[in-house]
Amino acid sequence: MQTKEDIGKDRLLWMYNQMVRIREFEERVKRTFVEHPGVIRGHTHLADGAEASIVGALSTRNDDDPVMPSYRCHGYPIVLGTRPGRIMAEIYGRRDGLCKGFGGSMHLADPAHHFPGASGIVGQGIAHATGVALTAQVKNTGQVVYSFFGDGSSKQGAFFESLNLAAIWKLPIVFILENNQYQAYTHISLEDANAAAGDPLSKKAEAFSIPGVTVDGNDVLAVREEVAKAVARARAGAGPSLIESKFYRFSAHGNAITVPPVPTQFPQHEAVEVYGRKAEYEAARASDPIARFRSQLINDGLLTEAEARRIEDGARAEMEDAVRFALASPFPSPEEALNYVFA
Ligand SMILES: Cc1ncc(C[n+]2csc(CCOP(=O)(O)OP(=O)(O)O)c2C)c(N)n1
Ligand SMILES: [Mg+2]
User: Fold this and answer.
1) Nearest residue CA, atom 21 of ligand 1?
2) With a threshold of 0.85, does the pTM exceed it?
3) Confidence class for position 265, pLDDT limits 50, 70, 90
4) Domain range holding 175?
């Protein structure tokens, strides 16, 4: 087990900073619906609550390791070094967006930062990531692929096919199952719904004779520890692992605005609104992964209140700037509409 001393203060503060940046970015997306109604068309899926899971995992990677998430994908490129303004511009459908405004929130891609692309099709990214891992193996690049997907995605055929191939071919990939306890509007424990079978979900690894473990996804250092082991195994040629990272999705499943735009308030979490699961929501809020890491670092004397506020103010200013950049960016012209259509 790596201690905080082993990891070092600089890296720990980097991790805190990345978590705060992701949260602040997602907050700005939410606020866009209120402050600039109509600016975001189409669906957005936010990852507030997933920050410890994302950053704990990505803190273990080498600079050229590919990262491939589901459609809940804003947080990863922020950590990989993509300029947040280009992500925001993509969400706003603008020309300076990562995909020139043609992809939107669910289809971010930034190959220059080893982010080959996300997919709106549940579970499909797992198959794409497995293909990227096969490329890494064939070309002997030494890369390990980080494949992130939801608890609902672990019910898809692509999940089983991908884990099967990755296991028999010993592909350099780590499968990170983000159990945020909801599959769109279905809570994982609802007995009358099509929830995911298996408890814990990491037991699915046994079917492929690969390591499977469940980790507290609100604990950034615990996630880091488990992912580091899996990455070391994959890099050594021993094949894939499945890590179930368990946390809570704070935001509603997604947000869309109608065309023509109708101003909407960003909805409350549906656990509160629809299912009446107020206590569950409030308990999850009380163990917010960012607040938890912040107080750990302060208690350990690795962060002062003033330093923490500097990091938080920095993230706010950065994401404010991302919104300004995106709002100022023009739309692609109608003549370009078919430019990237290949079929
Ligand atoms: C193949 C496919 N089936 C259904 C959908 C509709 N859909 C969008 S999100 C979702 C639930 C996914 O849940 P999970 O994998 O847990 O991801 P989360 O949204 O919680 O991150 C569904 C069924 C889809 N996008 N693709
Ligand atoms: Mg889910």
Assistant:
1) 150
2) yes
3) very low
4) 4-326
